[in-house]
Amino acid sequence: MMTSLPFRPCQDDSQTPALEKSVPECSLLVCGLPTSMAVAHLRWEADPVPVKNWADGRLKTATLDVLDRSLTVFRYFRPHNSHAATVPPRRLHERLNLLNAKSGFLFVHDPSSTDIEESIQCMRRYMELQELHGGRGFWVVINTPRGALTRTGRDSIAAHFDDELRNYSELNDTLKNPSDFGRCVLQLPVVDACRVVGEAMLTSPQIYRPRVSGDSIKAPGERSDQEFWVAFRHGRLVPWKHKDYIRAAYLTLLRRENNDKGLLEVATNFAADMHNFKQRGSQFQLLPESRTLTVFWLYQVKLAMCAFRVYHDHLPDPISLKRVIHFFPELMDEKLPDTYYTSAMLKSPYSEKFWMLPNLRELVEPLSHEDPKFRERLTKKQPGDPNRLLRFAFAVVKRYLRPGETRRRSWFINLAFSSLQKYAMHLRSAEPLAAPFSETQSYFYIQLVHAALSQLLKAGKSGLVQEMSYALFKDTFGISPSTWTAYYSPKLWDSLEARGRFVPPDLKPLPDCIHTSKFRFASDLWAAELNEPFKKAGLIPELPSLEILHFHQSIILEDAKSLLPTLPPAEVTTHVHLLQYIHTHLIKPTHTTSPSSVTRASLLPLFRSHLSLLKTSSPLPKPHVINTLILALHYLSPPETENPDYNPPPATTRFNFKFRPSHTDPQTKKFIIFHNCPCHADLPIIPDDTRRCLAVYYPQQYPYDHPPQLKHGCDEGGQEVGGGEETGVGGKDDNGDVEGRDWDGKTFAGEEENGDDWEVVP
Predict the structure, then answer these.
(1) Where are the domains of the chain?
(2) Which of 685, 731, 689, 693 is closest to 709 using CA atoms?
(3) pTM greater than 0.70 (yes/no)
């Protein structure tokens, strides 16, 4: 079965680019979804040129003797990935010999795979990669064991790939194949296919180079919206800047299929598009998109569009992005999130995985009518989020109003004040302008919320109280963070006396009840429907604010003090009981063993046995038990890769410092590198959840000349690097670069910059 495969565009025969007459050094990239056994017969070796960035992935090379010549075969895969479906980032294209159309592509499909569509999607990505650089051919091989007789299933699969390639070439008018420069869909073992393809490349001196068309050299800002969106979906936007990110978010919100979706659902789709964009040749690292930042930028773009529509309702749809940016120039500020969030919150695993509201200033709500203070609320500097205390009070009151709760209200309020005071001190250490803790302000909002929600309890709406969101609460009772102005004078509200103890209001007394007629005939089942508009607008976070999480944490810790050390599964009736059970039976036993022996495979039997006991004996909902156990398993042991060629680093955190060695001896330039082995557990470690730990590097302030911790002779630590009389594992090579030991025994090098600055990169 023969097929012609797509290459870069040619408008007509007169514009067909010339083919190379000489035979340059060529290589072959094995890609697709091959199983380990399919490529095991090739003698793979680690690439001699190390990949500096661990997130980029790994390369392996093999050499085949074809026609008395050596053909280099490359294979790319990403750590912690179950297959090789990801496309190598742009930084590795030169190392993979993809530039200047020097490489051929051999796409491998395993016929035992039941998901052909996944393989088709992967093939399209690599065809787009060939479209970018050109190449020496694109072959598809259906991996076939030697001596196999039955061909019916493989023939249908080959026909499927042949049709897909033909349709792809016809639908993309930019892809025209000059002459017969294509190859067939093969049904061979992978090793035999490599030899067949290698002979074809070495005997054919033709190289097709990509034509540089006017469309391919267009800057992102010069493209129409349709051209920009197509290029974005195919990963062909270079250079990529913040304004292009805003434009992609703007076009995402304008798409017809997103009109009826909530902002969080749109953010999920946009994050997937951004991930695919990075996979398809972007210059960025392939790191997961932050959930909070993704929703934040979409919220700001949608807010700008709504505000522009309110003030310019005479203009037709769709709204031009240039007009929106002119009306809302804050969108072009790449550091806009820093004015809403602390850096610690943006770097936390909470914001990476969940949508969280800002903790530095108020998130301006979308406009429904002209507001003269809109621009002021948007740009005026604030000492903190004015909703923080009211939102916290709402969470505290909801907690002690839970049905069946027997503890006194004062017990919860004391815990709330203690946790809020600690959080306020922590926040002010990072942001000095943040408001300090005030007992008067905190108690005022608690009393205000209690007066409002108690009316719903009297009406028998306890379920509605627990399901009500903070946004719905404000909209229902008309309570805002500025309500205090009707009860307190500014002088008393901000006084030092009001911070240390509760001071009664000086304008009018605190209310005993706040009435509303909105829920007079409402059922508890309406809560989800009433919250839906606020959820679609992005005003309901997926995770509460940090001060609320600390409050709930303090309650759990207090409850745990009264629990027995060991609980039978039948007595696990609350979430606190479940956490205590997991800590006693799962976490503590693993801490008594060696950390290196704790793997996911070794923990699974233990987890399954306790899961079976809890499912049969505990009255807690089964999904709740399963999800909590999965989180505990993920905490104890990271997910293991299914790639047998990759050994993950230790499950510890990592940070990398750029530092300046001592100037007392410029000829020596000594500094210390050591690994995170257990004997270094007493040394400080700065956590960084974005990647795993390869090694620890201490900055200039650390007394690295004579650290006593490094003199015990640890096999994995205590490396003195640099020239000098003291010996160590590392030293300088001929180029003056620093050599050390990576976690898997391979060397890594640091590069000297400006004479004294050193950066060690794994």
Answers:
(1) 13-203, 220-379, 388-542, 563-636, 649-762
(2) 685
(3) no
